[in-house]
Amino acid sequence: MASKMLFRANEILESTHVPFWGKDAFQYFRSDILSEENPFPCILGVEGFKKDLLRFSFVTTPYNYQDIRNAASALREYIDTFKTIGRYTSFVLFFKPEHKERSMEEYETMFWDTLTFLHQIDQKKWPQDIPKDPKDPLWEFCFHGEPIFVVCNTPAHSLRKSRKSRGFMITFQPRWVFEGMTGDSKIGRHVQKVVRDRLKTYDDVSAHPELGWYGQQENREWKQYFLLDDNNYTTGQCPFKLKRSEQHGRKKSLY
Fold this sequence. Notes:
alpha+beta; globular
């Protein structure tokens, strides 16, 4: 029987399938997201956690074939069911904290490598209605047939505390979560105001200039996935690599 890979919050601390480091990372995450003294900026994540709409998984490293297969399996299981969970759902993937210190640049590379690895072993084709070019304002990372907004947290973040975590961590939010939420909608304007107000006190750096709304002509989703600890940002090409079978109709596996 395969080991359980996808967990609800109330299962984690008692589960024999979650490693000790995973329980520690989860408790660090939970204390941050539920803090009343210093409210976490992402109100959708806070609301989702309180309503038990978040799902979690734990793997050691993205640079191990079996680990990335396990991560992909958990993400597929989540995507198959997320619309039955609730509107503010997310999938949080924890990686084992390392003893060595890594630079922000190393974590950034690790993040884009992870998305590329997941894409390489994705069993479904890229959705036809989502552009494959990250320069398109309607581009979004896709997996198992679903467009997903992605957020990376690392131990290297210090000023941008909203992106700090005990270990390398990636959150996957299906595009479906944000349906009806735009810069022109009442709920969109409310969410943006609350998030920006909280960021002013939570982070020791101002909101990143690349934060924007999906679909707006000047917006590029990939630039919001991994934010640096300051407000310098890369204007070059997106590091995500589309697999050849999507580019030219030929199958080619990373492994």
